[in-house]
Each structure stands twice: as structure tokens, then as C-alpha cells.
Amino acid sequence: MAQAVMQALPGIALGSALGIVLAAAARVPFLQGLGSVAQTRLGAELSDVSWPSVLLIAGLGVPTAMAASWLAAHRRVSRSPLQCVTGANSPELARSGARLARRASAVLLAAAIALILLETAYGSSLCGMLAIAAVSTLLVTGSASLVLPAAKLVRSMLARLGSVSASIAADELASAWGRTAVTIAVFVLGIGTATCTATIFRSAEALVLSVLRNHFRGDLVITSAFREQGWLQLPLDADLAAELRQVDGVASVETERLLPLDFRGDAVTVRALDGQTEGSRKGQWLFVDGDPDAADAMLAGKGVLVSRNFTEHFRIGRGQDLDLQGPDGAQTFHVLGVVEDFVSPVGSVTMARRQLAKLARDALANYISLEVRAGHDVSQVAHDIRRRMADRYRLRMLTVRDFLASAQALISQVFHFTRTLTAIVLLIATAALLQSVISGALEHRRILSIMRAIGASRRHLRLTFVVEGATLGVMGGVLGASAGVLLSLLWIPLHLRYLLGWSIPIDWPWATYATGVGLGAAWPVLASLAAAQRLARMPRVADLVSE
């Protein structure tokens, strides 16, 4: 145990320092890109590092190392003196380890299900975090419990081919159960974490673009040059829309007012739309529940659309009625459909502008969207508007197409660092796998030399190593990708919904999953070939007397 502590302390120190450096390095481009998208300046200070989290994670390293060393020592003590002298692995020891892993997996599965049910029932993000921790540990124990069945499957499949080398490889995987289980568990957790992280950030990137496309419609968006709070601009006089309709080249004008109202003790956002541009037609709405024709009915004043998170927070959906209280009156509205909308973490209600008049005497607009007639230049129309309104309004005009293109580039910059994090996690998992393959080769030098002494060729040795490495790689890659899918389904549709208040659609980065599986299958084979080539060239006598 003292040796484990001595080995753990440098790793904890270097790992913590590396984590802080990576966080600080990634935060600067992240906030710069995010500030460019939001048109504001965001600070990036090292003081924002969560030091309690760093200390907690670092503090867990020592007891984890001590527990692992105690378990290893306990298992060694349980072996017979003859096994300790000869280095032979007991099949019963492997079976007992597999049984322990299965029992731990059953307990962790039950705990994860209970915690998920508690999070769903009470909206507890703490239960969600504990559930994810339980599932992550379950991936480790579950992978370990699959080692013996996988070795048996490989042996039975390849026995039909009459391959002695393959049978020896399968036996080695089963006999060295502890090393094999730890290797596959680390690889599964590494690939699962990397692919899950990539999925979360890919989905967040798609979400931000979806929000921008939903808010900026038409060809030209006009807002005030001044900001009210955060990303929200100061409202303009809604009567400005009537003047804009008179500008040559303007085909249609739509105004949008964002107004917070109290609903059952929470602040929801009302989106009031007036007019219609091409971008506000039913094809632009992301319906979760309801007919897309409900968008036309909403614009006609026949009801409202609510966001998905509004439905989840207040249990009010399509076909039901909701009562809204404004500063100047109350009104009951019929819900025509449920849409994806991310303007508020609590929920939003989208209605026609004339419906808002029943709740508040409000003649303001946060956004004015214009559609330009065919044959007219958007920049020329913007120039004419600026010239006509310059003496009365300070306007900010955005060409939607150019804005979305630049925003997409900036958002890619914001999330670019996540690819580095994914690569680092994959590198760690790959290093663990390579270490296992090479150490396994060194552990079995004497056995392989005996094989050569009784007539096995170098080809047989290489095949033995390749089968062993390929089995580890395929198991680690496939189980790791499956773990990434499982963790993503826990994080995005479930946990982030209670943590952030939004239901984020999943956008799967299949290229990352394919890369993880490919690395899992390829690297062990290459490492096995390299180790086999090295051992095959060594003198047989040296290996036979090495012990």
C-alpha cells in the first residue's frame, strides 16, 4: 500500500496540474468565441477554476490507489504458495473475480435505476450525478464480468479452424483475468467518456445554431444598437414596422416581442409575433407534438404554441388550456402544439401579437425581420433603411445568411477545444491498452519460449499475440462505443433536462464513434505484432532461464 501511495502522489499532482492548464487554455478561446456570438465581452480568469472540485478529485486518488493495492494484495495472499512461486494463475481465482464483478454490477445497476427514478420524480440533479457515477462504475465492473465469457467465445469460434495459437491466446486472456479485466475496463471507460463528451458538445453546438436560426428569420434582421441585458437588445417601437414596409424592395415584415410573464410562480417568456416572413412559415417550426399547420393557426390568433420545456415543467401540452396573467389583464389560451424553443430555461409561449394585447399594453419589438423582394439587393435595402431612419433610430442590421455563416464558424471555434479533450481521453485509453499488451507479452516470455523450443514457429507466436490483442481491441472498442451511447442517453435527454431546464436534441458524432472503435481494434493488433517481433528475435535459452 505504501508503494501504491508513492506511485499515486506524482500522478495526482501531474494530473491536477495538467487539468488546470487544459481548462485555462480551453477557456480563453471558448469565451472569446461565445462572446463574439453573443456580441459581448466575457472574462476568462483562472480564479474561475473550481478549486474544491480539483481538491476533491485529487483527494480521491490516494484512497483509490490504496484500495486497489489492498485488493491486489488480498487476492495474492489467497493463492497457494506453489502458485505464488510458479506465477501460475488459478482458474478459480479468475472465476471468483468474475463472480465479484457480476455481483457489484447487479448492485450498481439497481442503484442507478433507483437514482434515475428519483431524479425523474423530484427533478434532483444531485441524484442524476450520482446515477451517472453509478453507471460509470457499472461500465468497469460489467466489462470485467464479460472477460471469461468473451474468452470462451473466442476459443469456441476459433477452435473450429484448428488454430492452436488462437486457443492459447484465449487461455491467456482468461488466466490473466485481472490484467485483462482492468485493461478492457479502462478502455471502455476511456472510449465511452470520449464519445459521450463529443456527443454532448456536438449536440450543444447544433442547439446554439438552432436557436440562432429560430430567432433570425427572413433576409435582414433589425434590432436596437443598444443592449437591455445579456444577449437581449433594447426594444424598438413596433410602429417602425409600418415604415419599413414602405421601403422599396421590402416584401414583408415581421416583429417579435419577448416579454417575461409570471406563470405559477416562475418567469416564462412570451414570444409575440406580428406579420409573416418566409422564415416564420410552418416549415421552420420544430414540432414535438402537433400538426405543423398549427403554426398558421397560431399566427391567425386561434391559440398558442408552447415549448417542450414548458410542457415538462408545467404538465400542459397540446389540446389543453393555460391561463396567463399579464400586467393589464388575464386570458385563457388554447395550446395548439408543442415546439422546440430555447429562449427560456423555464418555458416559452408563442402567440400572435394581437393576443398579447389582452395581457399587456405593449407597443415594442425586440426583433424586426424583413424579407427582400426577388431581384433586390439585401445590402442596398439595408443602406436605404439606414439612410431613412438614421436621424431617429440607432439600428443594428444583420444579413441573416452572412450572420449565420459567421456564427457557425465562431461556434466551431467555441467547441474546437472539445476535440482536443476527446483526443486526450482516447490517448489515455489507448496507452492503457498498449501497456497491457506489452506487459502481458513480457509476463509470458518463458511460456512462449517453451512453445518455440517444442517446435512452434514465429508465425504461430505472432498469431497468438495478434488474436489476444484483437480480442482486447474489439471488446474494448465495441463496449466503449456502447458505453458512449449509454452515457449520452443519460446525460442529454435526462440529466441536462433537469440541470439546465432544456431538452437538447441529440446530434450523434458518428465519426468520433467510428474513430474510437477503429483505434480500439487497430492499436492492440499493431502493438501485439511489435511485441511478437521483438520476442521472436530473442534467444530461446535467455527466456527459458530468465526466471
Topology (SSEs and partners):
Blueprint lengths: L1 H37 L12 H27 L3 H6 L4 H32 L2 H21 L1 H13 L4 H12 L1 H39 L4 E5 L2 E3 L2 E2 L2 E2 L2 H5 L5 E14 L2 E10 L11 E3 L4 H6 L4 E4 H7 L6 E6 L2 E11 L8 E5 H4 L7 E2 L1 E6 L5 H12 L5 E5 H15 L1 H28 L1 H9 L4 H43 L9 H28 L2 H5 L3
Helix pairs in contact: 1-2, 1-14, 4-5, 5-8, 5-17, 6-7, 7-8, 7-17, 8-14, 8-15, 8-17, 8-18, 15-18, 17-18
Please provide a brief summary of the model:
It comes from Eiseniibacteriota bacterium. This protein is α+β, with helices and mostly antiparallel strands. It is elongated and about 95 Å long.
Description:
The protein has 547 residues and is α+β, with helices and mostly antiparallel strands. The chain has 3 domains: 1-77, no CATH class; 78-212 and 411-544, no CATH class; 226-393, no CATH class. 64% of the residues lie in helices and 14% in strands. Strands 1, 5, 6, 7, 8, 9, 10, 11, 13 and 14 form a 10-stranded mixed beta sheet that branches. A two-stranded antiparallel ribbon has the order 2-3. Strand 5 and strand 6 (266-275) form a beta hairpin. 37% of the residues are buried.
